[in-house]
Automatic annotation (TrEMBL):
Residues 865-1169 form the THO complex subunitTHOC2 C-terminal domain. This is THO complex subunit 2. Residues 20-206, 443-563 form the THO complex subunit 2 N-terminal domain. InterPro entries: Tho2 (IPR040007), THO_THOC2_C (IPR021418), THO_THOC2_N (IPR021726), THOC2_N (IPR032302). One of its GO terms (cellular component) is THO complex part of transcription export complex. The keyword Nucleus applies. Residues 565-643 form the THO complex subunitTHOC2 N-terminal domain.
Length: 1394
């Protein structure tokens, strides 16, 4: 860099003998004086003074000064700095005034710009330009000849003869060049004219004059020896001369194919720079192209908007405006097609010289040209890419069954030594021209090229997989060209299949990124000119067509419509599936139909559908995050439930789709502490994995047979949980789900997160709005249920547990690093102890490995190890319910049921009856196949029964052998019981119903084995307070598990309390039956003492449950009801507590401020409690009191029967009065009845048809009364103020009355319910025969409304006491008043026609 010091004149003069050094110093002076700064004027004067001194003292530096002035002016003019220009003018002016040197001035006039010379005073700009032209003419064009007529003609003749002659193949190229130079020198020929003649000879040699432009573009001229000699000769001339000649010809001659072909021929050999010819052409290519494309885009946008628009007006003004725009657009396109430079560029592209042309225009202009002229520029670029792809295809793609074509290329010709980026190299070779053709849509006519690209890329990925080394250019090519181009091939599954052959090798994360940008977007993005118009149009048409098809889609035509849907989805899967999922979110009854409609969708469409599902789960269209809860803030939104159901059904129907992205999304949500999508995982495991039987939620609804069946193995669980109904699931889907969850430890990771999420949901310290307790309980129970299903699924016989075990952390890591509780840590035992492997039944007890044994004291509380041993802890943690309990009755019952089904089907088969099974699911099965299935089920049940019985006996034998070492102390039964509860049974019982049953059976097995150190009564004495205290701090699911635990325990205690013989058999002669007395000594428990202890437990449990029901907290009441419902039949056994419960339950039902689910549960439990009371389950109830209660109930039932009879008689009288008042006598009524009665039916009818359909709308309470959900008797006995409407006279046609059951008997059987819902019709005390069409089938409702729902006529309420008189009832408005007396059936028909 130049320094800031100004060189002196002496230094410059001293270096005058050295030209280079002198010019460097002079240049420093000029730079110092012209540098743009604050003191530029002062510096300019100093520099001018130095140069003035130098010029005054030495005239030999004239050439150096001219060179420095020229260089400085060139630099300053390029920058365009005004201040520096002024400084330069001032310095030159000072130097020019020193001496009168015309030669110096002339050199300055030749080298300096005219503007500077004019300011210096060396002439005007016009004069200088004129002199410059004269000078250039003398230098370049003036002939220095004496005899033009003789010498020039001879020279040019010989030159033309030589150029047109056929070259000798033995003649070297240098000889031709030397000969032309000799002719120029000998005859002093003008070089420019020689170049012009050579150009003309080249034009004639190319032989393009007889071709049109399209023919000239189709094939490049073949280079002959004569053309090679002409090219060598032209290369001898300066390039600027040739460039000037081309500019002159373009500006003066007509743009013929000969001229354009010659220019393209020379430009292809780098002899002409086409970029330098812009000024020679009349129009600006860039501006015209951009303007034309804007018109093209505007027209395309209007066409897309009009696809779904229905115009009812004439639109004359609009049509005129559109016509004007179209005319202007056509004119612009015509001008572009005639543009010479575009013709030359197009010719070069056709000849394979795209690399020489692409830099002449910006990429956006190239894209505009392809969009405006797809048949010219678009096809040219596609043809160029076709030529480039041929060697790649020959090297990688082989045709099966055919001999590979011979090719001189190999893979090494295109890739480096390390073949890690083969695909990237391939994409770089073809992506540049193809990406420019996207907006043109010309790929629609090059389907072969598109298929070749996909096949080559797929072959490269198969041979050289590079899952993590895709360059940005490769991803951009897939995103911006390969995927959008599929829309150009509508209804073409082959193209979509070719594309999927490439995409299936990419990771799902990359594929989903590509899908995310594979949409032209909605109408708001129409201002983006880079979007292809054809893509917008294709999406609009697909959206319109798929909506049309979905409107007509149904179960009946799903096969035909699915073909049409698949045709649309082949080219626009995002649009199609986005619309379909919107329909699914709104209408969940479309799930099965929508899934079935995907049968003809190709693999690419299925993968896109999974992405669309994931996109719908994450956010709604527009990026708005939707609420996953309903307005109550507790229940899951309808759209989320519908999507979960659709996902499970879709994966079951099409198990080949990849769901890794969906599982990773769930994993990410769990990491964030969000569990609202657990329903998705539950659905995938139940429907796709075939583990619906493992879902016990809600645990409170499990029946006794289901609980007993869960103690068996998988076949028994499947039969009992589904009540013998066959579960439809895909074995292939289950296998793929196993494989997916075993990959990279995804299943174990989800288990760990599910175990952690319970505490995160409960103790949420994020500072957000407080969550509803019901919601917290629901989320915790859901996570526990899903965790149990996932654990059973991963450890099932069909699963591959090796993959899961490899990714399983150690127990110490689980407990310390993942902060899991002891109960949550136990669930990982199944991976290590082999539980669930039904084939390894060698009789050996499963045990935890030595490494895990070291962590036992970490898992259990430290005080417990003083009373229980590690052997007890290991055995308890290593086994499950099916290891220590054999459900003999469940196996026998299911085997018997299945055998009966087999016999029934065989008997029907012998009778030749063809029956379709499961017709409601549309799955018709013959009897033969059903028999085979049932026989296989029976065989598996018998096999599992024998194997489990053997296994349980082996485990119990091993337990019996180790039981002597289970407890450390034998003198502290109470502390031992507390340690067992705290470390083992109680925390595990909270996990699931299976664990609750296991904990209960484990304790009684210890009792049965008379385990030393274990006291059964001390254990039970500690268990009851532990359970009752925890009811105020548990969720509904945990309460249900505790209820099962308590129910299984209380059954045994109840049997011991009221069956002294069983007590003596189970307790006598057992060391574990002892207990500590008040004096601290161990005693043997007697039956009387046990009764006292039982009464204490009964009181503790009863007081706790009463407190739960009376609590203002929802969770307390809910937990109490769950426990009471489970214990119904064994608790309560005392009438005092039972009556208290009935009173509190009635209060809950009548309190409108209580939640609806609490009121419904209270009513249901009240009915159950009354039934158990009537069945004698209240064992301690006094016999006299029970007899008096029954007598009172019978009296009340008879009274209600009489009142009901009076009501019916009153209704008959009122009906007769109404008929008389309207003028309808019995004859007219008979005529109406005869018209509606079937042939052969009796004319006498007890009532008109219209009487059955009158009455006010039924209320929810009436429905609950009729369905048995509300304890109507209990409420009536307590004097409930609720009133019920009278029964319908026509509702007497019920199966209960048909078998002759009296009202009193029926009321007694229903728990003293008032028979308001089903009353017997009376007409003179006789029942009428309803034969023919009027006879209702068994189990059918009294009548059905137009929507197919069963309904009954409203009834007047019965009097609550004897004070309710007929006069008070008559004040109530009649339901028949003000009604039309015409038959209601005809009236409904008239309304329908209206």
């Amino acid at each position: 860099m130049m320094g800031e010091a100004l060189p002196t004149a002496a230094a410059i003069l001293k270096a005058a003998s050295k030209p280079s050094e002198c010019e460097a110093l002079l240049l420093e002076v000029m730079e110092y004086g012209t540098k743009n700064c604050d003191s530029i004027e002062k510096r300019s004067e100093q520099a001018g003074a130095v140069l003035r001194q130098v010029w005054e003292k030495s005239s030999d530096l004239e050439a150096a000064l001219v060179n420095v002035f020229w260089l400085s002016s060139s630099m300053i003019t390029t920058v365009g700095n005004t201040e520096s220009t002024k400084s330069l003018v001032g310095i030159v002016h000072l130097v020019v005034q020193v001496k009168n040197r015309p030669s110096f001035w002339g050199k300055l006039q030749t080298n300096l710009p005219p503007t500077i010379l004019e300011q210096v005073g060396l002439g005007s700009e016009q004069e200088l330009l004129k002199k410059m032209k004269v000078h250039n003419t003398q230098v370049n064009y003036k002939q220095q000849k004496y005899s033009l007529l003789q010498e020039e003609s001879e020279g040019y003749s010989k030159l033309i003869s030589f150029l047109a002659s056929k070259p000798d193949s033995r003649q070297l190229s240098d000889v031709a060049r030397r000969k032309v130079l000799c002719l120029i020198g000998m005859f002093e020929l003008d070089p420019n004219r020689v170049l012009d003649i050579t150009w003309n000879v080249l034009e004639s040699t190319l032989d393009i004059s007889t071709l049109n432009l399209e023919e000239a573009m189709s094939k490049a001229p073949e280079v002959t020896p004569q053309l090679s000699r002409l090219i060598d000769i032209i290369q001898e001339f300066p390039s600027d001369k040739l460039q000037a000649l081309v500019a002159f010809k373009v500006s003066t001659e007509k743009m013929s194919p000969v001229l354009l072909g010659t220019i393209a021929f020379l430009a292809a050999r780098d002899l002409i720079q086409i970029g330098g010819l812009d000024q020679s052409f009349p129009n600006d290519v860039k501006a015209e192209t951009r303007e034309a494309y804007k018109l093209f885009w505007s027209n395309g946008r209007r066409q897309v908007k009009n696809i779904s628009k229905l115009s009812l007006g004439s639109g004359t003004q609009e049509d005129e405006r559109v016509a004007g725009i179209s005319q202007h657009f056509d004119e612009t396109i015509g001008m572009l097609k005639k543009n010479p430079i575009l013709r030359v560029m197009l010719m070069l592209i056709h000849w394979g010289h795209w690399n020489k042309v692409k830099s002449l225009l910006p990429r956006i202009i190239w894209g505009d040209l392809c969009a405006l002229m797809p048949k010219t520029f678009g096809d040219a670029l596609c043809n160029d890419s076709s030529k480039k792809i041929l060697p790649w295809k020959a090297a990688f793609v082989s045709s099966p069954g055919l001999t590979a074509p011979e090719s001189n290329c190999s893979v090494e010709d295109f890739v480096p030594e390390k073949l890690d980026n083969v695909l990237n190299t391939f994409v770089e070779a073809i992506a540049d021209p193809l990406s420019l053709t996207l907006r043109s849509g010309c790929m629609a006519s090059h389907g072969v090229l598109y298929s070749q690209i996909c096949r080559t890329a797929a072959a490269i990925l198969e041979k050289h997989p590079a899952r993590d080394s895709f360059s940005e250019g490769t991803i951009g090519f897939f995103r911006n060209f390969l995927l959008p181009s599929v829309c150009l091939f509508p209804s073409n599954p082959a193209v979509a299949t070719e594309l999927w052959a490439v995409l299936k090798h990419l990771p799902y994360s990359i594929r989903y990124q590509l899908y995310k940008q594979w949409t032209a977007s909605d109408m708001r993005s129409f201002q983006d000119l880079e979007l292809p118009v054809w893509s917008l149009e294709s999406e609009a048409k697909a959206s319109k067509e798929i909506r049309y098809l979905l409107k007509r889609l149904s179960r009946e035509n799903v096969r035909e419509m699915s073909r049409q849907i698949a045709k649309v989805a082949h080219s626009n899967p995002l649009t199609v599936f986005g619309t379909m999922l919107q329909q699914v979110e709104s209408y969940d009854n479309l799930v099965d139909v929508m899934v079935e409609s995907q049968r003809f969708v190709n693999p690419l469409g299925s993968d896109v559908l999974v992405y669309c599902l994931l996109n719908r789960f994450t956010a709604a269209p527009g990026g708005v995050d939707r609420s996953r809860l309903k307005e109550d803030g507790v229940n899951v939104s309808q759209w989320l439930q519908s999507l979960e159901t659709f996902t499970g059904s879709f994966f079951t129907r099409f198990p080949h789709v990849e769901l890794r992205g969906m599982i990773c999304y769930l994993l990410r949500r769990l990491c964030d502490g969000e569990v609202m999508e657990l329903g998705l995982l539950r659905t995938l495991l139940k429907v796709g994995g075939g583990f619906a039987f493992a879902d016990y939620s809600p645990a409170a609804s499990l029946s006794t047979s289901q609980l007993d069946g869960r103690a068996g193995w998988e076949t028994l669980q499947r039969q009992t949980m589904s009540f013998g109904i066959e579960e439809e699931f895909s074995a292939n889907a289950a296998t793929r789900m196993h494989k997916l969850l075993d990959t990279d430890g995804l299943g174990v990771s989800i288990l760990l997160l599910l175990a952690q999420v319970q505490a995160r949901e409960t103790y949420d310290l994020s500072g957000k709005k407080a969550k509803d307790l019901k919601r917290i309980g629901y989320l915790n129970d859901s996570s526990s249920s899903v965790r149990s299903i996932l654990l059973d699924f991963l450890t099932s016989d069909d699963g591959k547990k090796d993959g899961s075990k490899e990714n399983l952390p150690s127990f110490r890591e689980v407990f310390e690093e993942y902060n899991l509780s002891v109960s949550n840590t136990w669930m990982f035992n199944k991976f290590l102890t082999g539980q669930g492997d039904t084939e390894s039944m060698d009789g050996n007890t499963p045990s935890i490995s030595d490494a895990i044994r070291l962590c036992d004291k970490v898992l259990a509380p430290s005080p417990s190890w003083s009373y229980i041993s590690t052997e007890l802890f290991d055995f308890f943690a290593s086994n499950t319910l099916s290891d220590i309990y054999y459900p003999k009755e469940a196996y026998s019952s299911e085997i018997s049921r299945v055998n009966k089904e087999v016999s029934r089907h065989k008997s029907r088969d012998r009778m030749g009856v063809e029956v379709a099974l499961h017709a409601q699911q549309g799955n018709q099965r013959s009897d033969a196949s059903e028999v085979n299935r049932l026989e296989l089920v029976a065989k598996n049940l018998q096999r599992d029964s024998d194997a489990q019985k053997k296994h349980v006996n082996a485990v119990l034998d091993a337990m019996r052998e180790k039981s002597k070492e289970f407890f450390c102390l034998t003198t502290a039964p109470k502390d031992t019981a507390v340690a067992l509860l705290q470390s083992c049974t109680f925390p595990r019982s909270l996990q699931s119903p299976d664990d609750a049953l296991y904990s209960a059976h484990f304790a009684f097995q210890l009792h049965a084995m008379d385990t030393p150190g274990f006291s059964t009564f001390s254990y039970l004495d500690e268990l009851i307070p532990a359970i009752t205290g925890s009811l105020f701090g548990c969720t509904e699911g945990e309460a249900a598990n505790l209820a099962i635990f308590l129910w299984e325990t209380w059954k045994v205690s109840n049997k011991w309390r009221y069956d002294e013989k069983s007590f003596e058999e189970d307790i006598s002669n057992k060391a574990c039956s002892g207990f500590l007395g008040q004096d601290g000594e161990s005693k043997v428990m007697t039956h009387k003492e046990f009764g006292v202890l039982y009464s204490k437990w009964h009181a503790i449990l009863g007081n706790t449950l009463l407190a739960c029901l009376q609590s203002s907290e929802y969770m307390h009441t809910r937990a109490g009801l769950v426990v009471l419902a489970r214990l119904c039949g064994v608790f309560p056994t005392r009438p005092k507590l039972g009556n208290k419960l009935l009173r509190i339950l009635n209060q809950l039902q009548e309190n409108e401020s209580v939640r609806a689910d609490i009121r419904a549960s209270s009513a249901a439990y009240a009915t159950m409690l009354l039934r158990t009371r009537d069945e004698g389950k209240w064992v301690e109830e006094d016999a006299g009191a029970a007899k008096a209660r029954k007598e009172k109930d019978r009296t009340a039932a008879a009274k209600r029967k009489r009142k009901m009879k009076e009501q019916m008689q009153e209704m008959d009288r009122d009906s007769a009065k109404i008929a008389e008042g309207t003028g309808l006598n019995s004859g007219s009524r008979d005529r109406h009845d005869n018209r509606r009665q079937p042939r052969g039916h009796s004319n006498s009818r007890p009532e008109r048809q219209s009487d059955r359909r009158r009455g006010p709308k039924r209320t929810n309470d009436e429905d609950n009364v009729e369905s048995g959900e509300i304890n109507g008797v209990g409420r009536g006995r307590q004097g409930s103020p609720s009133r019920r409407l009278p029964p319908s006279r026509d509702s007497g046609r019920d199966s209960r009355w048909a078998r002759g059951e009296s009202a009193a008997d029926f009321s007694s059987r229903q728990g003293d319910r008032r028979p308001g819902s089903d009353s017997r019709h009376r007409d003179g005390g006789h029942d009428h025969d309803r034969g023919g069409a009027w006879k209702r089938d068994e189990g059918r409702p009294a009548f059905s409304d137009s929507r197919g729902k069963s309904g009954k006529r409203a009834r007047p309420s019965s009097p609550q006491d004897d004070n309710d008189t007929r006069g008070e009832r008559s004040k109530r408005a009649r339901v028949d008043e003000g009604r039309d007396a015409s038959p209601p059936r005809n009236r409904r028909r008239r309304n329908t026609r209206n």
